[in-house]
Every structure is written in structure tokens, then in C-alpha cells.
Amino acid sequence: MHKVCDVELGADILAANKRIAGDNAALLERHGIRSFDFLGAIGSGKTLLIEKLADILQSRGVRCGAIAGDVAGDDDYRRFRKHGMPVVNINTGKECHLDAHMVDHALEKLDLESIDVLFIENVGNLVCPADFPLGSKKRITIVSVTEGDDMVRKHPVLMGSSDIIVINKIGLAQIMEVDVNALKADANAINPHVPVVMTDARQCIGLDSLLKEMGL
Questions:
Q1: How confident is the model over 164-187, as pLDDT tens digits?
Q2: CATH code, domain with 191
Q3: Contact 201, 211 (CB under 8 A)
Q4: Fewer CB atoms inside 10 A, N or C side of the chain?
């Protein structure tokens, strides 16, 4: 009986999250906002990628905003603020992922009329966020070559639910003795239709290709 209750409670939580995510998506669509959920482990390069993409878009006259999710602190929030974006910080405490309810409250704090593209940076984790859509237009998962060439195949659930997979820090691949083609092959095996983009955010490599896949 205890196990049945656990399963029912988990199903209720996921169903509620899905409903709120749908509401978030509808709200963003009404305001003409294209939103992107960035997922990846700590150190994969999520923050820097968002910074670089925002700079490119803003130079083109695209108004960007961000939601910075982390267990604690406001480091990424402060980084995003330096790029002139409206930003909301979310600390999840003991939770290892953002959920749609948290994002709902964050959206209440943003002037949605002043945003064209919204970046949502999820908590640094490749397991917990998989079951919690936020209402974004696309889910983008970042894997760094510094994490090893088995990182993609170790996380099939998240990779399978991603709209774009980014292999970042490719400039370090040779030093790390990582085969980026193996990472791409694993991604294609798990999610055959997902675009896989090679980037090096620090060197501004592959950013235009990523923006193209994002439809921007």
C-alpha cells in the first residue's frame, strides 16, 4: 500500500506540473515570447552560452530576459544582469530542478511586454529536471566535453526529451581525449531527430548554428 501511495502522489505532482507548464506556455505565446529551457550539469557552460547568445541577439535589436535557477546564491543572476537583461533569480533550496510552478511565479515578476526571447537556466543537473517541463518553446541540453564521452548515453531520459543537444567546449576535446563524434552518435541513437550542435562558448564557436536551430 505504501508503494501505491508513492506512485499516486508522484503521478499527481507530475500531472499538476504539466498543467502549469501548459499555462506558462500559453502566457508566453500570448506575449509573443520565444522561451528556451537550458539544462546541463554544473560546469557544462549553460551560463556563458546564454550570455553569449543574449549579446548576439541584443546586438540585433532582440529584447532578451532570463530566469536564473540554482539551488542557492545569485551568481548567475548577477552575471545576466550585467548584460542589461531583466532577470529573476530562483533558489530551489533542497530541490534539484526548477518546476513549472516556480517559473510561473518568476514570470509574474517580469515585464513580459518588454521581452522577445526568454532564457530559463535550470539547476545544474541532468536527472531531476527530465520529468518537469516548464512551458518553454524548446528544451536545450548542454553537455561539455570535460564531462567525458559517455555523458550523453548515461542520461537517456533527458536526451530523449530534448529539442536541441549542445556539445560544448569542443576546443578542449583533444586535451580531454574525448571523441565529440562519439557524443554526437550517442545523441543520434537516443533521439534520432534532435539536432546536435557543436559549440565553444568562450571562443564564440557554433553560436550562429545554435541560434539557427533555436529559430532565432
A1: 999 999 999 999 999 999 999 999
A2: 3.40.50.300
A3: no
A4: N
